Structure formats: structure tokens, C-alpha cells
Amino acid sequence: MSYFTSLLITSELGEIDRFSSAKKVISYAGLDPSIRQSGDKEVRGGISKEGSAPLRWALVQCANVAVRFDEYLGEFYNRLKQRKNHNIAIVATAQKLLVAMFHMLSREEVYDPPTA
Question: Is the Cβ–Cβ distance between 56 and 79 less than 8 Å?
Fold first, then answer.
């Protein structure tokens, strides 16, 4: 991740303490699935895009690079890519990357992905 990207992400997120959970950060970035309901009918769509567009863009770009150089995220992406298309798999990887960033910032830890 470059300096520009990390500055963009941290400036768009602001203080990480204002988010109580990883789901709220995902929703803030607009990477959460959209759901439309009426009565008993429920329609699930793509991502909501009701968040920071620059943050979403930066996360997707980071995910595109991470799947090539990070073994853990690469395996996650390839597993999804077998069943879904590239766009769906890369957005899911961006979500996973954002959750990792949330936990790293809130717990003040370094990136340490699980090993197989």
C-alpha cells in the first residue's frame, strides 16, 4: 500500500474509535450489500455504494494488488473467483481488507494473516 493510499484511507475513515464494529466500517465505506424489502418480499442486490467513493475506490485498488502479493488474500480471492466473477470476488476481498484494517487500527496491531 502506498503512502497516498494509506493517507487517503485514514483521512476518509477518521478516528477509528467512532466505529463500534467492523460492520459499521463496511457500511460507512458503502461495501455492504443493499437490501430492498416490501412486506414479505426481500431483494438482495449489489453493494449499497452509500458511502465514501474515494474510500471504496482505494480499497478496491488495494485489493487488486493484494490478491497478487498476499498469500492469504490471494487464496480468499481465488476461492471466490471459482464460483463468482472478478468484480464480486474483488469487492469481497476489499471488505476483508477493510475489516483487517479496522482491527489493526482499533487494537493497535500489525498485519498478521492466519497461516494454513
Answer: no
